[in-house]
Structure formats: C-alpha cells, structure tokens
Amino acid sequence: MKANLKQEFKNRYNKEATHTFFSPGRVNLIGEHIDYNGGLVMPCAITLGTYMLIAPNSDKVFRFKSVNFEEQLEIPLQSSYTKSGEEWFNYPLGVINYLIEGGKELGGLDMLYYGDIPIGSGLSSSASIEVVTAFAFNQLFNCGLTKLELVLISKRVENEFIGVSSGIMDQFAVAFGETDKALVLNCDTLDYEAVPTNLGDHLLAIINTNKLRKLAESKYNERVQECQTALKQLQQELDIANLCDLDSATFELHKHLVTDPTVLKRATHVVYENQRVKQAAKALSENKLEEFGQLMYASHDSLKNLYEVSGKELDCIAEYGKTDPNVIGARMTGAGFGGCGIAIVKKDSLETFITKFTLYYESKIGYAPSVYASLIGHGVSELKD
Predict the structure, then answer these.
(1) In b/e form, how buried is each residue of 166-202, taking b as 16+ CB within 10 angstroms?
(2) Is residue 369 part of a domain?
(3) Which end of the chain is less congested by CB atoms within 10 angstroms, N or C?
(4) CA dist., res. 91 & res. 126, Å (int)
C-alpha cells in the first residue's frame, strides 16, 4: 500500500514524498447516543484509515490532491480560510485555518490523501482526515501542540468550519487509539482509560448497510432535544448536570418526573446504556468476550426499542448475529438510520459469515451490504520506512 502511494505521489507531483502519515477510522464498540449526555463511550481505532503523503514546496502554496476524489485545490498561504462548497479538502483546510489563527508559522506543502474507509459509512473518515492533517502539520512545522490540542482543533473544524454538531469521540479515538485496546472515554471530563481488548481468534466485521442516511441529522437533533427535556424535568428534584450523572437506581426513583412517554424512553436508554459501558469495560478487562457480546445485543435492542434510531437494515445485523454460532455479538454503531453495524466474528469463519450474512441481508433488504474485516488498530502516527 505505502509503496503504491509513494509512486502515486511521484506521478502527481513529479517528486518524492518526504513523510507518510496514517490516521485510523473508528468504531464505537458500545455506548451510543450518550456522548452528548455526558456519558461513557467505548470507541476503538480500526485498521482502515487515511494515509497522507507530503513534501514541502517553496511556492508558499498548499496543494491538496486525493486518490479517492477528483477534486483538488491549490491555494496560496494566507492569513485565514473559509469553507468553500462541499469538497473533501475543506477538512484539511479547516485544520490549517485554525493553526494559522493560533499563531503557528506554516510553509507551502504538497499533499496527497488516500483513504480506505468507506465514505459516508459512519466510521469517521472526516475525523481521520482532520487528525492526520493536524498531526502532520504539528510535526512538520514544530507547532508544539499536544495530542489533545490536536483533537480539539479537529473537533472545532467539524463543528465550526464544516458546520456539523458532533461530539469529541471520533477525533479522540482516532488520535488516542491503541492496538488491541478499547478506550473508555468520559465525554464530560475527557478522562479515559485504555482497556485491554483481547479478541483472541475473533475479529471485527464492520458492516456497511449501504443505506443512505437521509434522516440522520434531523433525527439526531431531535434526540438531543428530547434528552434536554428529560434532564430539565429530572433537575426539579436532582442536582445533576447530565443524564449520565444518574445511576439506574436513582433514575428509577425519579423517572416519574419525566412526563412524556417518548422522552422517558430516550432517558431510559441513556441511563442504562451508560451503565452497559461500565459493565462492558469490566467484562473485557476480565477477558469475558461472550459477556461483552451479550451487552452488544442489549445495546442494540435499546437503540431499536427505546431510542428508535435503528431501522430494518441495522436490525438485520443484530438479528442474523444471534443465529450464527460464529458471532459473539453484534449491534448498530454510530448515529443510526443506516450507516454501519459491527459484529465480533471468528477469524476462520469470516468468509462463511460474509456469504451467509449477505444472502440473509439481501433476502430481507433487497440489496447487498459491504463487509470489512478489521482488528483494533493504533491511533495517528508517522509511518517510517
């Protein structure tokens, strides 16, 4: 892969790349729709991601090219930048904008990006691009920023430069991920713990439903509002800042304060999903993979029945998983309404799993999913020869 990309860089720019960087995508193993409720999430880096090859230039320009997209940009070094259109290069351009705004001295750069993350699948290709750009510039121009500062800049790009209201989990997992470890991240404090995740003779099957996620953003904002409503009603008797400040026992004693049945369902998911993350971390630390798998199924059922962000495509993944003895656990991952699901599958049964699951999915949905195998990978880094 790396050799091919180096040749591609040389073909595009007629010179050698001086550095190669890699930033992974991510999946969230458990803990869904609780990042904006001050809760715990359990993402991990995957072995799919974004490669960035670079070489300085003396022209004082930034050149953005991609193997995945035809659109390219050549723009001079200036004091600020604004988003233009919907092209992919707005993500790295936003990073550069905030580095310059922060007083960092940058120079001209020729860049080539390649990603093997399926675009629009909910595996955080945008966060991967942002973080690899921030990391590369920080190293190349000696900006002296910490990894957390790079994460915060990347999140700012997503929220302010691009205009997407998302939490910090994606950029955090992409930057801080560790091989064979899941991160238990407190989205309120940003404290985290890397939990050993020994998949043994299993791997992650990442399943793209190939459904367009048209409803995701409007429904996402609706769920955020419903959680805020529940929080305000519970605050009548409880001194809490977030729904995830509640344990299940306290919630059960006070849930009568939440008067709307739909809002109550949303709050119930949030409180119990946060508890499941704690149980999942304990199960993994004790090497109880089967128990972790059951928590994955419980998470999916809650997202389907209480939070109502699933759909027949994502439900298909969990339903099939329960029938296959080579699958330990399965669930939707991400915002829902399409996007991806994950399953923990025996390595030596992967091809059989893909064949049987694809037939099952096609019979229910009418078209095929895409299945990608991944291990739990490492966070952003420079790739050395």
Answers:
(1) bbbbbbbbbbbbbeebbbbbbbeeeebebbebebeeb
(2) no
(3) C
(4) 7
CA pair distance 94, 80, nearest whole angstrom: 9
Residue 87 placed within a domain: yes
When divided into structural domains, the chain yields a total of: 1
The whole-angstrom separation of Cα 108 and Cα 23 is: 22
The pLDDT tens digits of the residues spanning 172-221 come to 999 999 999 999 999 999 999 999 999 999 999 999 999 876 655 678 88
The CATH number given to whatever domain includes residue 93 is 3.30.230.10
The answer to whether the beta carbons of residues 101 and 121 sit under 8 Å apart is no
Residue 87 identity: E
pTM summary value: 0.91
Considering the domain boundaries, does residue 248 fall inside one?
A: no
Q: DSSP secondary-structure letter at 162?
A: I
By residue range, what is the domain housing residue 60?
A: 2-198+378-382
What is the CA 286 to chain-centroid distance, rounded? Answer: 25
Torsion of CA 305, 310, 316, 322, to 10 degrees: -50
pLDDT given at position 87: 92
What distance in Å separates the CA atoms of residue 1 and residue 8, rounded to the nearest whole number?
A: 11
Does the annotation mark 110 as catalytic?
A: no
> Has residue 160 been placed in a domain?
yes
Q: Which residue has the tokens 């988003």?
A: 83
- Tell which residue, 125, 120, 96, 280, has the closest CA to residue 196: 280
- CA proximity to 25, closest of 4, 8, 7, 43: 43
Containing 365, the helix (H) or strand (E) segment is helix 350-365
